[in-house]
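Thought: the user wants the 3D structure for the chain below. I'll pass the sequence to the structure tool as-is, report back what it returns, then summarize two notable features.
Action: structure_tool
Action Input:
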Amino acid sequence: MTGPVPLRVLPVDNRPRRRDWLDVPAIVHQGDPAFVAQLRLMESMRISQQHNPFFTFGEAGLFVALRGDRPVGRISAQINHRHRQFHAAASGHFGFFDCRDDFDAAKALVDAAACWLRARGADHMEGPYSFSVNEECGLLIEGFDTPPAMLMNHARPHAAALLDRLGFDKAMDTFAYRMTRLDTPLRIATFADPLRADPRIRIRPLDTSRFEAEVHTVIDIFNDAWSGNWGFVPFSEAEIVAMARELKPFYRGEYGRIVEIDGEPAALMLAVPDINGLIKPFGGRLLPFNWARLAFGLWRQTARSARIPLMGIRKRHQNSLAAVGVLALLVSDFLVEARKHRLDWVEFSWVLESNKPMNALARMTAGDPVKRYRLYRRAL
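Observation:
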């Protein structure tokens, strides 16, 4: 008789363990038609201290679980010093949680992350953040039947059950909404249309000839608009520069909007072509020819969907009479572009459960959310 396959949890501190780490999502999601393997090169860069701006203000430990020689799960543990500055001085985070339906493996991974965090003064662990609130965050708990949009994660239903068994509690839920009917809803038009004739208000696309400056403007508005929201940490300068660099190759100016009030940038909406539909057949590989297929798809603008990850209005305007109209104007204007590009859907994500105005606007535009993500917390 053969006994159970031995379980090991190892730090990702060499090339073979790095390969195991990158292999985990495809193993966990094997046979899942909604899973989209992310480009392996990009995933490798995400955990690289040389490439990810997170490491200019944070530190992380990566762990992989193996049954015999086969990877079955992974997790990160990280200290975000900017989060400690703006929120809890003893906070600790975890992320990149992927695991087969294997309680012992999940427990060993969480225990390894908890030990790493305790050694760095954390009194609780919260996540998943991969690595920060300004990257992928939350664990999918509803909406498993459709593929995720770009920079949103995917999970199997058992993942949430594993964290529940391990003593994690809900910290916050976020929603993803999808607009599949791209005609501007009457209620949105009712709020937006009067502002088009207001001489104080101007809406314009992003100027791609000065792309980095425009990204700085977008983030400046966003940092102000979202300050004070649950878990919010302002984008750092390193994150802004990295975002501009990563978005520029495939960004289209008409995919974003800035509203100026009395000549000052006051509100923003940034959308990105959803490349998940283009890369899904690649299985995570760019070589030998997938890079050319991706480049051609981006050049021809063949993406059939888009995601709106950033939207907001400066705080001093949020309680004004024009606030709802400005946000409706941003949505209305982008829906015109979505119809021009013949998109199948536009996703608005993620939206905090506690953000009642944004949820109301999203429901007015798209109906009920299509996905729910949960952020968990556990005392150490």
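Final Answer: Structure generated. The chain has two domains: 9-175, 179-373. The longest helix spans residues 323-340.
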